[in-house]
């Protein structure tokens, strides 16, 4: 018998001797009978002792089974608790990682949002175009010299705001046809003309690359194109090309 088992047996109320083997127990009874001497011990008494011994052995066996069950249960409980603790630790780590990941993602989203909403970022107004007229050109096509740059593109091509700004006009504008004006943070306005349709409303904030309308040939126009103007402070037009280069690093 191991010390642990003995301790367990003691703990549940069985003495060490009660766990003796049947042979040992019988010897003890016989020894007791001998020590009493001279047949003082009747057969009846011997039977009674043996019966009691037998009962003790039986209860010992029950106790043993019970102790083992308790031990197994305790072991299973410990294993269960260890597993639960491990699972909880894994769960906590997963949670921690998820939180860190969400935080990193939020930071990236914020950085992207900051870039997207930057007042100085620029996007080209059209993805595909061909320059058909430059600023300052004279001739019969214009009442005075040409006030902007013409970018020919297929009808319906998306026109995008070159920079962040506020839509200050989205209306029909005579010779300009359907026109959108965007005022940028430094007060410069960019005008998008001859559109087939608008996609913005007055007061709306647009960011660089946001669609403001589509290429058309409305107003004084001979074919689908974007007549693009740049007007510092909303005043007289300037040549869009150096402005695009200096403000946007764009060389259309
Ligand atoms: Zn033009």
Structural account:
- There is one protein chain.
- This protein has helices at residues 3-11, 22-36, 43-116, 240-248, and strands spanning 130-133, 149-152, 158-160, 165-172, 178-183, 189-195, 197-198, 205-206, 211-214, 225-231.
- With 252 residues, it is an alpha+beta fold.
- It folds into two domains: 3-116; 130-248, Glucose Permease (Domain IIA) (Distorted Sandwich), CATH 2.70.70.
- It has a seven-stranded antiparallel sheet. A three-stranded antiparallel sheet has the order 3-9-7, with no helix packed on it.
- Helix 2 runs antiparallel to helix 3.
- It is rod-shaped.
- It binds zinc ion.
Question: Which short descriptors sum up this protein?
Answer:
4 helices, 10 strands, 252 residues, three-stranded antiparallel beta sheet, alpha+beta, binds zinc ion, 2 domains, Glucose Permease (Domain IIA), rod-shaped
Topology:
Blueprint lengths: L2 H9 L10 H15 L6 H74 L13 E4 L15 E4 L5 E3 L4 E8 L5 E6 L5 E7 L1 E2 L6 E2 L4 E4 L10 E7 L8 H9 L4
Antiparallel strand pairs: 1-2, 2-10, 3-9, 4-5, 4-8, 5-6, 6-10, 7-9
Helix pairs in contact: 2-3
This protein binds zinc ion.
Zinc ion binds next to loops.
Please tell me what the overall shape is.
rod-shaped
> In order across it, which strands form the biggest sheet?
1-2-10-6-5-4-8
SSE-based structural type: alpha+beta
CATH superfamily of the largest domain, by name, is: Glucose Permease (Domain IIA)
Treating each run of at least 4 consecutive H or I residues as one helix, how many helices?
Answer: 4
**How many strands, which pairing sense, and closed or not: the largest β-sheet?**
7 strands, antiparallel
Instruction: Give the SSE order as H and E letters.
Output: HHHEEEEEEEEEEH
What's the domain count? Answer: 2
């Amino acid at each position: 018998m191991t010390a642990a088992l003995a301790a367990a047996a003691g703990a549940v109320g069985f003495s060490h001797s009660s766990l003796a083997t049947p042979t040992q127990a019988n010897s003890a009874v016989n020894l007791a009978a001998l020590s009493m001497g001279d047949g003082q011990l009747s057969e009846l008494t011997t039977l009674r002792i043996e019966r009691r011994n037998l009962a003790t052995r039986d209860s010992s066996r029950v106790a043993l089974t019970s102790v083992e069950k308790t031990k197994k249960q305790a072991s299973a409980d410990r294993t269960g608790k260890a597993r639960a603790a491990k699972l909880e630790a894994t769960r906590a780590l997963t949670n921690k990682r998820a939180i860190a990941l969400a935080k990193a993602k939020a930071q990236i989203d914020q950085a992207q949002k900051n870039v997207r909403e930057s007042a100085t970022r620029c996007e080209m107004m059209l993805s595909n175009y061909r320059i058909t007229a430059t600023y300052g050109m004279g001739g019969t096509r214009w009442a005075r010299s040409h006030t902007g740059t013409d970018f020919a593109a297929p009808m319906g091509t998306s026109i995008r705001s070159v920079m962040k700004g506020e839509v200050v006009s989205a209306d029909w504008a005579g010779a300009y046809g359907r026109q959108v004006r965007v005022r940028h943070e430094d007060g410069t306005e960019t005008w998008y003309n001859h559109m087939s349709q608008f996609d913005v409303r007055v007061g709306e904030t647009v960011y660089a690359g946001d669609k403001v309308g589509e290429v058309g040939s409305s107003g004084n126009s001979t074919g689908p194109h974007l007549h693009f103007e740049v007007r510092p402070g909303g005043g007289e037009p300037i040549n869009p090309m150096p402005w695009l280069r200096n403000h946007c690093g764009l060389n259309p």
